Amino acid sequence: MDHETRNRMNDEKKYVVIVDRLERRGVTELDIADITYHLQIKYIPDLEMDVCLDHVKRVLKKREVQNAILTGLELDILAEKGMLSEPLQTIIASDYGLYGIDEILALSIVNVYGSIGSTNFGYVDKVKPGIMGELDDKTNGTVVNTFLDDIVGAIAAAAASSIAHKYADADFDTELYKKQ
Ligand code: MG
Questions:
Q1: Which of 55, 56, 128, 175 measures 20 to 30 Å from 166, CA to CA?
Q2: What b/e readout covers 158-180, taking b as 16+ CB neighbours within 10 angstroms?
Q3: 88 lies in which domain range?
Q4: Ligand 1 centroid to residue 139 C-alpha, Å
Q5: How far is the CA of 177 from the centre of ligand 1 (A)?
Q6: Cα dihedral angle (115, 118, 121, 126), rounded to 10 degrees?
């Protein structure tokens, strides 16, 4: 087995672990696809939920994305258990507004998808649609979702950008076809 094949298999295995871990934290792939749908429906009126779900899955299979998710979720879980040392324990457990590293980590997810990714993330970070709002409300020291809400927003924004790129390519191909 060559290096590339082995790495791909690892990414597939990590994907299964990540989907399971997100579900344990109360987030399904469909919750994320729902945010993606709301981000893209303005631009693609005949967009279907299945397409959004498919792109969410693709995003979750990317190694850079997986690494960010694993790191953020771990910090939320450790903070929830009171296992971090101070002052980080209090900062993360109380979702301190000026901490900012949760957003930085989330940006590492959207950066894979270029500037549309960052724009989409900026929007959902402000509006906190769907499950993001619910997660944000739950953070109270007993339940810690400091990283999770940003991670969910970033995955949704990345999937929206992935769809936008795909449709832009399709439009471009159509134009070329017309010119022939
Ligand atoms: Mg946060």
A1: 128
A2: bbbbbbbeeeeeeeeeeeeeeee
A3: 3-179
A4: 9
A5: 45
A6: -120
* Domain CATH code at residue 31: 1.10.3760.10
Ligand 1 ion: nearby residues, β-carbon < 5 Å: 102, 146, 149-150
Phi-psi region at 129: left, alpha or beta (left = phi > 0; alpha = psi -120 to 50)? beta
Q: How far is CA 150 from CA 4, 7, 95, 154, in A?
A: 30, 27, 12, 6
Give the total number of structural domains in the chain: 1
- Percent of the chain surpassing pLDDT 90: 70
Q: Considering only CA atoms, give the Rg of the chain.
A: 17
Q: What is the pTM of this model?
A: 0.89
pLDDT digits (tens, 9 = 90+) for 4-20: 776 666 888 999 999 99
Measure 16 CA to ligand 1 centroid, in angstroms: 24
Distance 125 CA to ligand 1 centre (A): 9
Q: What are the pLDDT digits (tens) for 54-106?
A: 999 999 999 999 999 999 999 999 999 999 999 999 999 998 889 999 999 99
Which of 89-103, 120-134, 164-178 has the least mean pLDDT? 164-178
Please give the span between the terminal C-alpha atoms of the chain, in angstroms, as a whole number. 44
